[in-house]
Specification:
115 residues, CPE0013-like fold, 3-stranded antiparallel beta sheet, 2 helices, 18% helix, elongated, binds iron/sulfur cluster
Length: 115
């Protein structure tokens, strides 16, 4: 099977082709090893870092930006967002504070300071 993949690791956006045969993935079109690694991961275990916002309870009309500390399986992104919609946090919040533990094996951390 052949897959066309655009590398999203850097702004160059190399168009790549991955040929999948059993457990083997052969990549062409990449300009650096990071692109090859990205294409192989996309074919075998695609993951994404999820970014979102969470409501701050004790600050009127304020949201704090958050992200997954590590990438999560691409197929779980909607579930991660659903969990984030259910929670609120209390200020003060500092960059790196954990707002949710163990979501698909990683933490959700704040990426903005709310004092
Ligand atoms: S293959 Fe390398 S140069 Fe090309 S977009 Fe990906 S990271 Fe950038």
């Amino acid at each position: 099977m052949e897959r066309k993949i655009t590398c999203i690791i850097c702004p160059r956006g190399c168009p790549m082709t991955a040929v999948i045969e059993g457990d083997s993935v052969k990549v062409s079109g990449h300009s650096c090893p990071k692109g090859e690694e990205y294409a192989i991961n996309e074919c075998t275990n695609p993951v994404r870092t999820v970014t979102a916002t969470v409501r701050v309870d004790n600050r009127r009309d304020v949201m704090v930006s958050v992200k997954t500390e590590n990438p999560v399986p691409k197929g779980s992104m909607a579930d991660v967002m659903a969990q984030l919609r259910k929670i609120t946090v209390q200020a003060p919040i500092h960059i790196g504070d954990v707002v949710l533990e163990d979501v698909f094996g990683t933490k959700i951390v704040a990426t903005k300071e709310i004092l």
